[in-house]
Amino acid sequence: MASNPALDQLRSEGVIGAVSAGMNQAEMLTRFAKEADFDCFLLAGRYTLLDQVALQELLPTCLERGVAIIAAGVFNSGILGDPKPGTHYNYQEAPAELVDRAQRLRTVCERHGIPLRAAAIQFPLGHPAVSCVVVGCRSLDQLLDSIRMFETEIPSDLWGELKAERLLPEEVPTPS
After folding, report:
1. CATH for 50
2. Is the pLDDT score of 71 beyond 90?
3. Handedness of CA 99, 25, 52, 119 (dihedral sign)
């Protein structure tokens, strides 16, 4: 495994606590994990209820190499906060088929009495490579809402129904 001697020295001296990288795509982070000595990655929007591309290669590689994942962008630019026409995904207007899928996710959550936001915030934590979830807050109300969504108890039946409805892959790990 390649390494950066300067960063390794700073880490070993305690000048820096960790070597990390962050981006909103999984492919380059997978390459980083395979070719260098990283401690953690901030992964934005690529391990969410709508997008599990990181499940294929990045997350298994990180588990194998001991790289912690910090999941961010769990609302996928807002579509999982309030899925409606005109909402955003990947920083642009969401295509109709993604809005429909997000609305189907919300419908299943509502059948269980769970806000979609709660499922979106908690979903990434089901994977053992994910050490934490980061959410952005613009106000105290958003912060308090995020805390409530983290604390919402989600029944395992919800995850099972999302898989049965093919809204999540069968093999995806979910929170317990």
Report:
1. 3.20.20.100
2. yes
3. negative
